[in-house]
Write a structure and sequence with these properties.
Blueprint: E1 7-9, E2 24-25, E3 32-38, H1 45-57, H2 68-75, H3 79-91, E4 95-100, E5 105-111, H4 112-119, E6 123-128, E7 131-136, E8 141-143, E9 152-154, E10 163-164, E11 176-177, H5 181-185, E12 198-203, H6 210-220, E13 227-231, H7 242-253, H8 266-284, E14 289-294, H9 299-311, E15 319-322, E16 324-327, H10 335-349, E17 352-356, E18 378-379, E19 387-395, E20 400-403, E21 405-406, E22 414-415, E23 419-420, E24 450-451, E25 454-457, E26 463-468, E27 471-475, H11 481-496, H12 504-507, H13 545-554
Parallel strand pairs: 11-26, 12-14, 12-15, 13-14, 15-17, 17-19, 19-25
Antiparallel strand pairs: 1-8, 2-6, 3-5, 3-9, 4-5, 6-7, 10-16, 16-18, 19-20, 21-22, 23-24, 26-27
Helix pairs in contact: 1-10, 6-8, 8-11, 9-10, 11-13
Length: 557
C-alpha cells in the first residue's frame, strides 16, 4: 500500500552540510546498515510544555520529577505508531531489529538499495580527511500518511558528528596539576563524596583499559569508585593499542600535535577522553557509581547513547557527563531539535546533563586578519536544557582565574567555547542577556541561547595528569569541565538528598544562586571577553561548591 501512496519530503531533513569539497564515490548497494526512525511522543504538547517549565523553574525541593516508569507510560511512543513504522519497513524488505516505546524509536536493518527505495534517497561515499563515510545526498521522502508519525530519520549517513573536546598539550618534563587539589580550590563540600549517586559518562569511540582505571586510583591513594559499563549497538570497548597511544604521547611532547586532519587517530583521542572523564569524576566524587556508556560518534550513535542513559532504570543515573560536541553549522538540522527534546526529558526526570562547550573559543580562532568575523557555538551545549560547561585558566598559587585562552609551544590558539546559538532562541530565563552588547560590530553570529552557563579549570601547562594505556597523559580543555561539574552535581544531589536536576533557569533568576559563583572578569576566548556578571567567555563563573549547596538549600519562591 505504501508504494502506491503519494510521497512527501520529511521537514528539516536536508542532508548535512559538509565544509569544503570532498570526492564522492559509488557505494555497494548490497551493504547492510541500521537506520533509526524516531517517532513522536503520545503525550499532549501543551501538557509537556507545562511539565518542562515546572521541572526547570521550580525550586529543587518542590520539583516533582517523574520516575522512569511513569515517563514511559505517559511520554513514550504509541505501540500502534511503532507497529506502523515496522510495517512500512517490512514492505521494503527492512527488518525491525529494535523497537522501544520508552525511547520512541524503531531500528530498521536492510541494504542500501532497500533504504534508497523506502526513503527515496541516494547514497554515496564521501572521502573526508578522517576516512570514507556514507553520505545521503537527498531529503528523505515517505508516504503522506506516514509523515506525521515520523519525527526524525537518523542513520542515512554515518558521518562523524561529535569530536572529543580534550586538549592534549604540554612541555616534556613540565609539572602536572594534581587533580585532588580541585576539591579544595573549588570548595567541594568535604563531607560529601557522591555516595548513592550514579554518573553516566557517554563516550563515542575508543575504549578503556580496566587496568588504567585501577592504577590511576592506586596512584592517588583512594579505592576505585564502582564502575559499570554498557556497550550500545555498533559500538564496542576498543581502546587504541599501547603502541598507538605511545605514538600519540610522543607527538604531544615533540610539539607535533595536532597532526594534519587526515593523520589524527580518533580512536586514540576517544581512548584518552574516556580515561580522563572517568578519572576526573572518580577523583572528585569518589563514592559515586560511574556508568560508562560506549556508543558511536554519528547522529544515530549519539541518539542511542543519550536515550539509553536516560531510560536506564537499573542504574538510574542522576547526572550525565559529555565532553564532546560539534559546531551547529556542521550538525544535521533535524538532529538538534530531536536531542533538545531529550534534554527536556532529562530535566523532567531530574537528570542534570553536563556538556562541554568545546575548545575553539567563539569560533573565530582560525581566522586571519582579512577574514570576516564569524562566531559559532557548539551543540549539544547550545541546547537550552543542557548545562553548558566552559573553561578557565586557574592559577591556584597566584590566586587568579581568567577566561581560558592559551598557546603552548607555538601551537594554534586554544580557548573555551562560548557565544550564541543560531538554532535555539534565547530561553525565557536568559531574556536579560543582550547578545548585541557582546558581539563585535560587523561580526556574523547567532543571537540565541547564550553559552556557557558555568566554567571550571581547563588550562594546560600545567596540565591534568591521567593514565591511559598505562601512560601518563597531560590533558585539559573543556573536556575537563563537564566531568568536574558532573562530579559536583553528584555531591549536591547527595547533600540535598534529592536530584538537583536542571540548574539552568535557576542560574539566571533573582534568587542569588549565581552570586555564589566565582565571577570571572578578565580574559577572552577570541573576540568575546569576560566581564562582571554573566558573559559568553566565562558564563556565571567557576564553582564555590559549599556556597552553591547552601544556596540550593535556601532556595524558595
Amino acid at each position: 500500500m505504501a508504494r502506491r501512496e503519494r510521497r512527501v519530503p520529511l521537514p528539516h531533513h536536508e542532508p548535512r552540510s559538509i565544509r569544503g569539497v570532498y570526492p564522492r564515490r559509488v557505494v555497494d548497494l548490497s551493504r547492510v546498515i541500521d537506520v533509526t526512525i524516531v517517532v513522536p511522543s503520545k503525550g499532549p504538547a501543551d501538557e509537556w510544555t507545562a511539565l518542562v517549565a515546572a521541572a526547570v523553574t521550580e525550586p529543587p525541593q518542590q520539583r516533582n520529577y517523574l520516575t522512569r516508569a511513569a515517563f514511559g507510560r505517559r511520554w513514550g511512543a504509541s505501540p500502534q505508531v511503532l507497529a506502523k513504522v515496522s510495517a512500512f519497513g517490512e514492505e521494503y524488505g527492512l527488518k525491525t531489529v529494535d523497537s522501544s516505546a520508552w525511547r520512541r524509536c524503531v531500528v530498521l536493518r536492510g541494504t542500501l538499495a532497500d533504504f534508497q527505495d523506502a526513503f527515496s534517497v541516494t547514497f554515496a561515499g564521501v572521502d573526508l580527511p578522517n576516512g570514507t563515510f556514507l553520505s545521503n545526498e537527498a531529503n528523505p521522502q515517505v508516504p503522506v500518511s506516514l509523515a506525521p508519525l515520523i519525527e526524525a530519520v537518523l542513520g542515512l549517513d554515518n558521518i562523524p558528528s561529535a569530536r572529543p573536546h580534550l586538549r592534549p598539550r604540554g612541555r616534556r618534563g613540565s609539572a602536572m596539576f594534581n587533580l585532588p587539589e580541585l576539591r579544595s580550590a573549588y570548595r567541594f563540600p568535604p563531607r560529601l563524596s557522591g555516595s548513592g549517586q550514579c554518573v553516566a559518562v557517554i563516550e563515542l569511540g575508543g575504549g578503556l583499559y580496566p587496568k588504567d582505571y585501577i592504577e590511576y586510583f592506586r596512584t592517588i591513594g583512594i579505592p576505585p569508585p564502582p564502575l559499570r559499563k554498557r556497550t550500545l549497538p555498533r559500538a564496542g570497548n576498543e581502546p587504541s593499542s599501547v603502541e598507538d597511544m605511545e605514538e600519540l604521547l610522543k607527538s604531544i611532547w615533540d610539539g607535533d600535535f595536532p597532526p594534519p586532519p587526515g593523520e589524527i587517530d580518533y580512536g586514540a583521542l576517544w581512548t584518552w577522553e574516556t580515561a580522563m572523564d572517568l578519572e576526573i569524576i572518580g577523583t572528585l566524587a569518589p563514592k559515586a557509581t560511574l556508568l560508562l556508556m560506549q556508543g558511536v560518534f554519528d547522529d544515530q550513535g549519539q541518539y542511542h547513547a543519550i536515550t539509553s542513559a536516560l531510560a536506564d532504570a537499573r542504574n538510574a543515573p542522576s547526572v550525565i557527563s559529555c565532553s564532546w560536541g560539534f559546531f551547529e553549522a556542521d550538525t544535521t538540522p533535524i538532529f538538534m531539535p530531536v536531542i533538545d527534546r531529550w534534554m527536556q526529558s532529562a530535566a523532567v526526570l531530574g537528570v542534570t546533563a553536563c556538556f562541554s562547550t568545546g575548545d575553539y573559543g567563539d569560533g573565530s580562532l582560525g581566522e586571519t586578519g582579512n577574514d570576516p568575523v564569524t562566531l559559532e557555538a557548539m551543540f549539544p551545549a547550545t541546547s537550552p536544557y543542557a548545562l553548558a560547561c566552559g573553561g578557565t585558566t586557574l592559577d591556584i598559587r597566584a590566586g587568579t582565574e581568567t577566561a581560558w585562552f592559551q598557546r603552548i609551544n607555538g601551537s594554534a590558539p586554544m580557548a573555551a567555547g562560548g557565544g550564541f546559538s543560531q538554532e535555539f532562541p534565547l530561553p525565557a530565563w536568559q531574556s536579560d542577556i543582550d547578545p548585541d552588547s557582546f558581539i563585535p560590530a560587523g561580526a556574523s553570529s547567532g543571537k540565541g541561547r547564550a553559552v556557557p552557563d558555568v566554567v571550571s579549570r581547563s588550562n594546560l601547562d600545567p596540565a591534568f595528569s591521567v593514565i591511559a594505556a598505562g601512560l601518563p597523559f597531560p590533558v585539559g580543555g573543556t573536556s575537563a569541565s563537564a566531568p568536574l561539574w558532573a562530579a559536583l552535581v553528584a555531591l549536591l544531589n547527595q547533600g540535598l538528598r534529592r536530584p538537583t536536576g536542571s540548574l539552568n533557569a535557576l542560574l539566571y533568576d533573582d534568587q542569588g544562586l549565581s552570586d555564589t559563583f566565582r565571577d570571572i572578569v578578565r580574559g577572552k576566548i577570541g573576540h568575546l571577553r569576560a566581564r562582571r556578571g554573566w558573559d559568553p567567555a566565562s558564563g556565571w563563573g567557576s564553582p564555590d561548591g559549599e556556597a552553591i549547596l547552601q544556596a540550593l538549600r535556601r532556595y524558595n519562591r
